[in-house]
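Narrative summary of target 7.
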Amino acid sequence: MLDGRALVDAHVHLARIPTLRMSWDAWAMQRRADGDPRAIYDHEGSPIPERFVAYLEQEGVDCAILLAEYSPRVTGVQPIEDIVAVASHDPTRIRVAANVNPHLHYPMAAEVERQLALGAVALKIHPVHGGFPPNARELYPAYAICQERGVPVIFHCGTSNFAGAVNRFADPLYVEDVAKDFPTLTIVLAHGGRGWWYDAAAFLALMRERVWIEISGLPPQKLPEYYARHDLDRLGRTFVFGTDWPGVPGIRANAEAVAALGFAEDVLADILAGNARRVYRLGHLAAVTRP
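Modeled conformation, tokenized:
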């Protein structure tokens, strides 16, 4: 918990280091408030579940959602099986999100079904690293399954500076097509339009009640600047807290920075945990002890 408030980090990358296509220094932020994340790993570069749980406790995290990623051209392949193995150590505190790439997965519906059967609480779509538009028709069977089952779909919606990224596919206009074609699908815009789409992401979230903005990868103190054209308390009701760890100084540091922005107490509680609990149907969150 964070000062008595539940805390959910809805965007965490716990890749095995050998699966990364880039160096650790490019992957993880070097200026940190939470110690060296490599202490979580063994000498072969695999995360040690007990150490990761201890890290979450240190940071006050009640629940973290780990993301699989199949993006061999940019970041590499972090298969869902690797993160399921970590989540099984503490399945209440650690959840997983599936990921599909239409260049790799066929038939699409079968792969989505397979990953959901492993316990995924959401489906992540990464068009920027995968090199495809979010409204690609090959993905529609995945969206149909998620809509039918009430599984949220997370879209990477923001620029990436990694080599090979195709940033034009981060445009929220592509996601608007999906929202129109699947009107009861729950959609999360990861990174909230980072780069030059903040207004587009905000308008989409305010226009459609099933669209949420996840603030991962955004310096919290800059949120008022990024969304200056909007009432931040109103827009904040659509925010889901996430960090993009290890690409941030620390989970607690980011959460404390959000808390310092002056949101109304009910809005802040929903940003830090309440909205994630509703979107991902997390249910009861086991309380953690703050050191």
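The longest strand covers residues 187-194.
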